Amino acid sequence: MPAVPPPRSLLGEGFAIGVATAGFQIEGGYNGHEEPANNWYDWEASGRAARSGVACDFWAHPEEALDRAAAIGCNAFRLSVEWARLEPEPGRFDEAALERYVEILEMCASRGLEPMVTLHHFTHPAWLGEEFWLRPGSPDRFARHVARVIPALAPHCRRWVTINEPNIVMLMGWIEGACPPGRRVAFADAYCVLDNLLTAHVLAADVVSRRATRRAGDLQHELLVDL
């Protein structure tokens, strides 16, 4: 379906106004039988966290949310591409899932919604372990994942969030213990985690700058880390 011009922003010319989502929060289909498992899997299985279940079923029916966003005057829509869905097992990359994300970006464009893609929104595959961001190699591992998905997404998106709220990932996982791995007041490890997350942002931004520009020609890409 061809893209339509974005509607005039409610804030005036040059402004984007929209809604922000995260795959694990709205897509549904995680951490169940034969479903992609992320770093919340053990918490859900043990009853420490409620089952995420079908959520808003966005993965199966994205049109409903996109239509609502367009109807209230949005001209932008932020969504994440979930690592656990794209690589549910080490070395097994789900090309069909990546194609589905491309379809969703095309659905955005057909409704006059400019997509903004978040490359990491709080979650990662369960097989990487709950302490993934504490490991020294985590920034390079994340950069390799980004390099795998960017070529397919770049023709459909020019605005990117590398990592959503790295400070909250560190705070909730290693200081307050409210999210996996559930560590409390582990200050030394928390600083290492934050350093790895910020390094991962830089590496991912480099990947987007190189590969997205190469794939999409002269299209300018905007990058940010969401604090």
Determine the N-to-C terminus distance. Answer: 34 Å
Count of helical segments? 8
How many strand elements? Answer: 5
> What portion of residues belong to β-strands?
5-15%
Q: Spans of 5+ residues with little confidence (pLDDT < 50)?
A: none
Please name the defining characteristics of this protein.
alpha/beta; globular; 227 residues; 5-stranded parallel sheet; 8 helices; 11% strand
Describe the structure.
The chain is an alpha/beta fold and 227 residues long. 42% of the residues lie in helices and 11% in strands. The longest helix is centred in the last third of the chain and has 30 residues, at 187-216. The radius of gyration is 17 Å and the shape is globular.
In terms of topology, how is this protein built?
Blueprint: E1 18-20, H1 23-26, H2 41-46, H3 62-71, E2 76-80, H4 83-86, H5 95-110, E3 114-118, H6 138-153, E4 159-164, H7 166-175, H8 187-216, E5 222-226
Parallel strand pairs: 1-2, 2-3, 3-4, 4-5
Question: How would you concisely characterize the structure shown here?
Answer:
The chain is an alpha/beta fold and 227 residues long. Helices cover 42% and strands 11% of the residues.
